[in-house]
Amino acid sequence: MLPDWFYWLRLQHTKGVGPETARRLLAAFGLPSHIFAASTTQLTAIVSPKLAEALLAPVSASLLRLAEQTDAWLQQPSHHLITLADAAYPATLLEIPDPPLLLYVKGRTDLLSARSLGVVGSRNASVQGVRNAGWFAEHLSQAGICISSGMAAGIDAAAHESALAYRGSTIAVVGTGVDIIYPARHKNLEKSIADKGCVISEYSLGTPAIAGNFPRRNRLISGLSAGVLVVEAAAQSGSLITARLAAEQGREVFAIPGSIHSPLAKGCHQLIKQGAKLVESAQDILEELAWFDVTAGSGAHAVLSPASCDSEPASALLQQLAYDPVPLDELGVRTGMDLASLQAQLLELELSGMVETLPGGLVRRLC
């Protein structure tokens, strides 16, 4: 006897059946197994004759191979396949317009119903952006909030890593099959998330990294969460897609402001202009979401502040730097230093974590 999930898999892989058609069929027949047991006459009352023919066609060899692969994957510990009809399906995803038919889960399924906040931002994040993501994830984790993100480079990875470091919980929503690690360098991070949190995907096993799948998976990051925090984003960032989806789903949108001169702050400033809440601390988010009954960590009230430079007396060069990016040639004029000396001192300060060099010959202070 075939497992129930097989019919969901078959429906998902029937050519011509998209999310809207699948919802119409499920509304009419209840379960996928009933769809495939229906007659041509019953099906053509809902879909076109061509699609009815596709639904009644024999199961393909490729689908049978995928089913065998899926069954073998499910035999491994902490591997789960949740269908839209399962009690374990997250209630928050049932609220969005297009919930996935299937969710592949590695790790703790209980986190799918936990209080969570999406934390997203630029893949090519600045040093300060990575610090901000980690800072917020740390204090939200201490307050008992699960951190959801997309396991991408930059802001996503920093949020996941910080949540795990402070014994918090985290969900990675990936845009590939859950058995594919992307980017590959996140192999250890993916294992840690699967061991202590959970990794989920709506895509079948073996699905590679396809560009169009990543914007689509963003609706699940926001859908699982009560709100989304955008840490750092350029004007055309994919993170803005997540923020837009969050707003459309009725979720709260939060954004961290930055320098008016920083390209990676443009997206956040745009969101704030559109009504996103400007945040400076984890407490801002906890208060907006009325999460007063969580166990707030001591850092939740702390306002985001630069790192400390107390280890060394501030050099004359450091005193000439601001938190806004400064062109290297302008810095040379301010200090009266020649280029070689200036670059040597900046390198020393950068290695100490006190400054950050940015594209375009810009430098800014971090402490």
From TrEMBL:
Domain (DprA winged helix) ranges: 310-361
InterPro entries: DprA (IPR003488), DprA_WH (IPR041614), DrpA_SLOG (IPR057666), RuvA_2-like (IPR010994), WH-like_DNA-bd_sf (IPR036388)
Domain Smf/DprA SLOG, first and last residues per copy: 81-289
GO annotation, biological process: DNA-mediated transformation
Similarity comment: Belongs to the DprA/Smf family.
Record-linked PANTHER family: PROTEIN SMF
Protein name (record): DNA-protecting protein DprA
Organism: Undibacterium rugosum
